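Board notes (copied after class):
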Amino acid sequence: MARVKAVLGSTTVRVVVVLVAVALGAYAVVDQWSQVRAGFADFGVGAILGSLALVLVSLAASMQVWRSLLTAAGSRVPVAAASRIFFVGQIGKYLPGAVWPVLAQMELGQAQRIPRRRSATVAIVTMLVSLAAGLLTAAVAAVAGLTGSVTGGYGWAFLAVPVLLVALHPRVLNPAIDRLLRLAHRPPQEEPLTARAIGTATLWSVGYWVLNGVAVWILTARLGASGGHAFLLATGGFAFAWCVGFLVVLAPAGAGVREVVLVASLSPVLSLGEATAVALASRLLSTVGDLLTAGLAAWLGRGRTPEAEQSND
């Protein structure tokens, strides 16, 4: 175990992992661009830039989900440092396997004196909160008027909602976390997560889903689907597609299934070709957003010490 920690903590290993992840993310951008460049002419520059801006704001909301939980768990991290840990760590999702973002955040958090067990715990709870909020957003959109809501054959994913809500209740969540820490021969949490902390993180997560829904809706509007029904399909469809991709896909960042589900969700208001163009454009903008936020966070944080960040907070 000590040797594994030494390897993971090596600066060389961390740099190599980040470079490989960035290379895979960049490759995804090139690959997606080759598929959607013809459709971009229909969207227009204004719609693309507007959607990208919303994606970037949504990523900031996503970071706040993680940061609010980290604060509640006992580590108050300045926004600049939190952005660097979270956004650079998220690039790890472009590597095969869901463990890389968690490992990256654990190692990057060491510079801010965040215990590894706390980083791991908060990363996992962040995933659960995001998944629960995404499925709830999709369900609310369906109830609000998605006549014949299309789920692409993955409607069973909604069965996870009651399980997640029970699992996120503090009386269930905290004992489960402490038990897992004991099994890993680690001390229990210093600051158990409260209902208020879970609720705050959930609100940030709902904001993330809605912002991404508006980003998709802007694209559908350029193709003629601009009404309230299209907005519900875009918002609920994006959230549901991401959650399904998280639940059933082993490929990095839910590639493949997410697009299939989003196309199915948009099919009541767009043709197959138009819905496919929107789904691929959405994936491309999400990837560009991940790379931009990681690059900006790393650039702004160069040469900064934890003490300097704390004094400027």
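Comment from the instructor: Confidence is low (pLDDT under 50) at residues 1-9. The two ends are 36 Å apart (CA to CA).
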